[in-house]
Description:
With 556 residues, the chain is α/β, with parallel strands linked by helices. Helix content is 27%, strand content 14%. The protein has 17 helices and 20 strands. The protein has an eight-stranded parallel beta sheet with strand order 11-10-9-5-2-1-13-12. Strands 14-15-16-20-18 form a five-stranded antiparallel beta sheet. Bound molecules: 1-deoxynojirimycin (NOJ). 1-deoxynojirimycin is lined by residues 62, 65, 102, 186, 222-223, 281, 342-343.
Amino acid sequence: MTKPAAWWRTAAIYQVYPRSFADGNGDGVGDVAGIRSRLGHLQDLGVDAIWFSPWYTSPMADAGYDVADYRDIDPIFGTLPEVEALIGEAHTLGLRVIVDIVPNHCSDRHPWFLAAVAAGPGSPERARFHFRPGRAVSPAERSEAPGDGPASSAAGGELPPNDWQSNFGGSGWTQVPDGEWYFHMFASEQPDLNWANPQVVEDFDDILRFWLDRGVDGFRIDVAHGLVKAEGLPDLASLQPGAGKPYEDQAGVHEIYRRWRSIADGYTATDPARERIFVGEIVGPDPEGFARYLRPDELHSAFNFDFLFCAWEAGRLRKVIDDTNASHALVGAPPTWVLSNHDVTRHVTRYGRLGDTGFGFDDRRHGVPSDVELGTRRARAAALLSMALPGGVYVYQGDELGLWEVEDLDDDLRQDPIWQRSGQLEHGRDGCRVPMPWSGRQPPFGFSGDGAVAAEPWLPQPAEWKDYTVEAQQDDPASMLALYRAALAIRPAFGDTPMTWQDSPAEVLTFGRGDLICVTNLSAQPVALPAGKVLLASGPLDDGRAPSDTTVWLRR
Length: 556
Ligand code: NOJ
């Protein structure tokens, strides 16, 4: 008998965004009690694991990605004992648990940062972060800035230490009252930690152990490419064209992940049936650089953003799939297939837009018209395509309901720091974080229970979602939910078998895996299907053929 593949190599992993999944206490914000009450949905859906976006103590400057205590739960979400109970309940249902770890930065309210600000320049407390004196304004700059008074010129250091920008817009540096500056790759409330400091390294060893001791099966690593900064923090303008960014993908990150791997493997060794894993959020490196994170003694897997932001176009998808398989084969790691997450425009909306789909903080194409019907048809086809490809697959909460990006939120409700930091130019990510609709015909659609006392959800849900609730879809065989359930039930049959492309017209993607075949028709015309028994189709067939924007699974 062949040894079963490690669970994470083929897993279907569901992302829960706690603030928007289910609200157990009726305050309008999702919480752990709500998640516990809805675990049955995930079991019925048929996923293997759940990844929880951060639920730690946080002032919520970036929806919890600004952590003030890595070992406790924010009161808005619940308590540590509730999370411990949730982990146990998930395991009882056969669902593994992955928690988000945010090691690149903490909150500016974390005791580490408060102590650093209080302790002053040159202190060991400041050495946990990237504090630097500012640059002085040059005489030329000063003559261009007549408003600059003599007091500041005497002090010096009026300018940020270098030209690094925040990913959320504006300078990457913020000044503290004594005049020093600290670097933050994201919001100013998210100071970057200094991973050259052994204390930081040891603290995170302990944080990993804390959660492993509570039974988690793995970690999703936020900004996994960003922890180590280039020596001397060189100006971007000083670098050769084509040189990578000095705050991304530095060689030193690999040492951190080897260390983390040995910690996780230590837990696995005592309980081999439950292999503890890491999935990295890695953005930026080329395919070889990406694969280096997935060497056998580093991370197990990483999100496939190339697939996520690929346009709905056969040639480009085929290339992304080939490149993905090739880069992962370099190190024997399983690919992952991702369509949406809490940072990107929901793929129903992306696929309903013409041309490139857009990924990332600055490419959301907010307001570009989208045809939801077209986007939904493609989202159904993409779901079956992604679930047929070899490796792991991610489902972001609401994908299984066919939710779209909510683009008409009132500006004064927007909470994503990108909105303010971009001078209200970038609308940010709130539109993919609108609370889940569960039941009923009126908001909050069961999100906050049925009680009349329930507060409004923290973001308003579209009235049209009355037809998109779990309740409305669960008995409808034509629904997105029925498609996801059916696909996830069949998917284990693909196993760990590699894929082989089959001959097909240029705009049709056809591949086999063992005795299963997946056909995705991206052309405008219906295409004939290969011989075999149809197991599942993302839409009705046309006289035995696959219509445009349809995926079909067959057994030969
Ligand atoms: C990536 C996370 O997915 C995103 O939501 C967050 O804003 C940034 N990292 C900063 O932590």
